[in-house]
Each structure stands twice: as structure tokens, then as C-alpha cells.
Design goal:
There is one protein chain. The protein is α/β, with parallel strands linked by helices. It is 31% helix and 9% strand. It is elongated and about 120 Å long.
């Protein structure tokens, strides 16, 4: 009897041993498989703040005019964006290239090493032969006027990805900033030599002229948009590109305002070149075409007056370009900005949107909450960009980008 019990125990122990060996083998196999599988791109997006290169195998294209037919049709139903008279030019995304994959930053690389005087002289040159000896694709110059880092760069990287050759990027930081502007490849080597910029002073206008002149060095740049580190795009690249390239006017806010923050900032020492009746105010965040960009950097008539007489609390960045356009080129301007800003809370600075303020309703209200004119026709697409979005809003913006902005 004892012998049978002993044999039963031995069989049980043998069975347990076999189960243990099988369990260890299965566990080792699972661990090997898990380590061999790359981290999911969606997790990478949220933990590393980088936009994966394979986020979209086929970037969606939403032509600004529904009648424009592209070679690749989106699988997502188009949004209710309606803008008339934009059938001339549209953009088709290019396949993603290996150069768009993340690579080590080169934050010390600058676009050029010219002084302001050399830069403006070089940028003011205009070709007298219209036909170019190369295939010219009109590009949009995105000019970022920032303090240092671009905290929303992952969102911008998703916006730009797949459209290389249709845009240029220029970044003006404070000269003492030595860190990395953004880790994404499209921002590498895009800084320009800069000077100290102080809010409310003429140095803001100088930085804008420096950005315009740097962008004018590329003859393919046709439209120039000024942005800050707190700006976001409200639509995908195709929509914004078509809107700008097909527009017959520029977009600079320009209006006459009575009171201390409008006409009250005027200095009569500007007479007779600039009179009180010609004095205008507008948003700093402008969009201009190549012709107007050239006129701004070459201006030797109005800029010296603003440099000498428009000093705090006369904020030159709110008055120089609007007044210049009102006097010299009033018919080519739409008198509105393309950048949405919320001034409803009052004060010297606009409302700042954080994580909890970013909702589908907010973004759609920015997209379609107003009515304006575009190429002589009414439209509800009045703002292409918006600000001020603080860094905490990034995760929420990335979550909603595909649903609302369609990129």
C-alpha cells in the first residue's frame, strides 16, 4: 500500500515539474515576442511628443474647392468648408520620403550668416526675366516669431508631413536662446540670425522684416504668414495652401480706431508723411504676398518715422504695416487677419487656451463662427490659424486634429 502511495506522489511531482517547465518556456517565448515588436506608434506619439513618420500612410487631401479633383481621393467624407473662386491652383501631397524621418537635431545650424543690411540688400533683388530656369512650385513661407522652443511642434509636424516642396519654414528666436527649437526634421537648420526682441517696441517690426527678407531669398515663396509659438493651424495643409495661393488679396487687419489705444498713439511729428487720418491699427499676425513683402523690407519712407516716433505705449507692430498698406496699397488688402484671437476677456493680452478649454465645439467655432469675403464672394472660412494655445493643450490638440482639422 505504501509503495503505491509513493508511486502516486512521484507521478504527481513529475506532472508538476512538466507543468513548471512548460510555463517557463511559454513565458520566455512571450517575453521574446514582446521585445521583438516595436512600440506602437500611437503610444510613441503621447510619450515622446514626436509625430511618428508612419502616422498616415495616405495623408488626406481636402481641396478648398469641392470641384477640384486630385489623383488621390480621401477615404474620409469632406468637411463643410466652402470657399468660392479658388479653382486655379490646388496642392497634391507627395509620398513621404526617408528624409522626413526623425534625425538628430542641428540647433546650431542657421539658414544664413548675413547681417540685416546685407540680408535686406540681397532679398531686395528682383529677377527681370519672368520665366525661371527651374520648375517652380509656389510655396508658402511659415515664419515663426518665437522666444525659444516651439512647444506645439508635434502638431505642426503632423500638419506639414507629406507636403515637402510646398512650404518653407523660418524661425526667429531670441539670440541668447541656445536650446533646440524643435526635434522634428522640418525645423532643423531653419533659424535665422536674430536680435533681441522686446514686446511693444520697434524690435518686433525689425524681427518681422528680418523674417520677410530671409523668406524672400527663396524665389519660390509666394505667400508669407507670420506665426508665434502659441499658434495652431485650423485646417489641413491642402486647405490652407489653396486658400493662400489662390487669393487675390493679402490679409492684414487694418482699421481706424478712436481713443487712447488707436488714434491716441499717433505722434504729430510724423506729419506730413503720415497724417492722423491715415493712421491705422491692426493685428500683428499678418499674411502678405511676395510683392508686398518686398515693399515692406525696402521701405525707407515710413519705417524710419515709426522707429523714431512710435514708441511705447505706441506698439509699432500693431500700426506700421496697417498704416503702410492704408497709404500705399489699400486696394490689395482684405483688411482682416487670418489668425483667430480671443480678446473677449479684456486686458493687453488675448485669452490663453489650455488643455481643458480645447474642445471640438471651440475649434469648429474658430473655423466657421464668422462670415467674411474671399475673392469677392462670402465665405465662413475666415480664420486659418488661431492663438494663444499654451503647451498643456498639445495632447488634446493631437487627439482632435484628425477629427476637426483633418490632418
Amino acid at each position: 500500500m505504501k509503495k503505491e502511495i509513493r508511486q502516486l506522489h512521484l507521478k504527481t511531482l513529475a506532472l508538476y515539474f512538466v507543468i513548471l517547465v512548460c510555463g517557463i518556456g511559454l513565458g520566455a517565448t512571450l517575453i521574446f515576442c514582446l521585445y521583438s515588436i516595436p512600440l506602437n506608434s500611437k503610444l510613441k506619439q503621447y510619450f515622446s511628443l514626436e509625430v511618428p513618420s508612419n502616422f498616415e500612410d495616405q495623408p488626406r487631401v481636402y481641396p478648398i474647392n469641392p470641384q477640384v479633383i486630385t489623383q488621390k481621393q480621401s477615404t474620409t467624407s469632406p468637411t463643410n468648408i466652402v470657399v468660392n473662386n479658388t479653382t486655379k491652383k490646388s496642392v497634391k501631397e507627395e509620398p513621404k520620403e526617408e528624409s522626413e524621418t526623425p534625425r538628430p537635431a542641428a540647433s546650431s545650424a542657421f539658414l544664413h550668416s548675413m547681417t540685416d543690411e546685407e540680408l535686406v540688400w540681397r532679398a531686395s533683388m528682383v529677377p527681370r526675366i519672368r520665366k525661371t530656369p527651374f520648375k517652380k512650385i509656389p510655396k508658402v513661407a511659415f515664419m515663426f516669431l518665437v522666444r525659444g522652443r516651439l512647444p506645439l511642434s508635434p502638431l505642426w509636424a503632423r500638419f506639414f508631413r507629406g507636403y515637402k516642396g510646398f512650404y518653407s519654414i523660418y524661425v526667429h528666436t531670441q539670440p541668447y536662446y541656445v536650446g533646440e527649437v524643435a526635434p522634428e526634421p522640418m525645423f532643423q537648420g531653419r533659424r535665422i540670425p536674430s536680435e533681441v526682441v522686446t514686446w511693444g517696441e520697434i524690435s518686433m517690426v525689425e524681427a518681422e522684416r528680418r523674417l520677410l527678407a530671409s523668406a524672400l531669398l527663396d524665389f519660390s515663396n509666394e505667400r508669407f504668414i507670420l506665426l508665434s509659438e502659441a499658434c495652431i493651424p485650423l485646417y489641413n495643409f491642402s486647405t490652407i495652401y489653396s486658400y493662400l495661393i489662390n487669393s487675390r488679396k493679402t490679409f492684414v487687419e487694418c482699421y481706424d480706431q478712436e481713443g487712447p489705444v488707436g488714434r491716441g498713439r499717433y505722434d504729430h511729428n510724423m506729419e506730413p508723411v503720415v497724417t492722423l487720418q491715415q493712421w491705422r491699427k491692426g493685428s500683428q499676425w499678418f499674411e502678405v504676398d511676395r510683392h508686398l513683402a518686398l515693399e515692406v523690407i525696402c521701405d525707407k519712407k515710413y519705417y524710419p518715422l515709426f522707429r523714431d516716433y512710435c514708441k511705447p505705449a505706441c506698439y509699432s507692430d500693431e500700426h506700421y504695416i496697417p498704416t503702410f498698406l492704408n497709404i500705399e496699397y489699400p486696394l490689395i488688402n482684405s483688411d482682416r487677419s487670418l489668425t483667430y484671437v480671443d480678446w473677449s476677456k479684456g486686458g493687453p493680452h488675448p485669452y490663453r487656451f489650455g488643455r481643458w478649454e480645447v474642445t471640438v465645439d471651440l475649434l469648429k467655432q474658430m473655423q466657421n463662427g464668422t462670415e467674411c469675403m474671399y475673392n469677392g464672394e462670402p465665405t465662413r472660412v475666415c480664420f486659418l490659424f488661431a492663438r494663444k494655445f499654451i503647451p498643456s493643450s498639445l495632447f488634446r490638440l493631437l487627439e482632435l486634429a484628425s477629427e476637426v482639422m483633418h490632418f
